[in-house]
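User: Small ask, check this?
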Amino acid sequence: GLNFLIPLLDRIRYVQSLKEIVINVPEQSAVTLDNVTLQIDGVLYLRVMDPYKASYGVEDPEYAVTQLAQTTMRSELGKLSLDRVFRERESLNASIVDAINQASDCWGIRCLRYEIKDIHVPPRVKESMQMQVEAERRKRATVLESEGTRESAINVAEGQKQAQILASEAQKAEQINKAAGEANAMLVKARAKAEAIQLLAAALAQQHGSAAASLSVAEQYVSAFSQLAKDSNTLLLPASTGDVSNMVAQALGIYSTLTKPQAARGRAEQPPAPGDVQVAGAEVPKVEQEDSS
């Protein structure tokens, strides 16, 4: 406020600025938790909150706060390892501000903030840190490459698995379709054979059907006999190979033997024609006579 000074008796002893003050903290050495010596400096931001305490509470407030900041900095760095010093600079600054404010409250000074400017690492430690960074990068590159190889192998295996599954499903569908086709073909063949048997039975039941059957059997017998030399090297031939009429008579005798029960049943159901009886009666003794000869 407004004050009056008596000349030669009163004079101004202290002049305090209430503005924010910036103080450079000199560079100092500090030892970390893992015994690494660092050279560190900072900037301190202060403000005089009580001019009376700042004038009469301490002789030199700026020097006192600077020394307190240095000692607090060395103490806080001793609690941290080298790697944590670079990662936790903000928490380190906050710890220094709290420690300064606790001690400077009676001085009428308040520390607003503290900032670390530079951290100087010894050359050998710096080289080892660079080697560590390079090793970490090579490690990450190797890990990434191995993960890429692993994912590639997994993708290839998954692709092969899916391909095998699809191939097996396709083969299964093919077999099912093939089996269904074969079953349908067998049904069609069976139906065709049944119809053919029905038509053959109907044809044999007609007039002169037995004579036509005898002719067909004789033709098949002669055709089968002609194929014997083509299928196997071992042949069983009858004695009368050159007598074709004898072979035909034998085939007709076999057919007549098979058709005797059916003929007997047919005669019981329906009287045969006189001509058919004479023909059959004339043929059978002839066949038997040829068989006996």
Remarks:
- The two ends are 167 Å apart (CA to CA).
- The first strand starts at residue 20 and ends at 31.
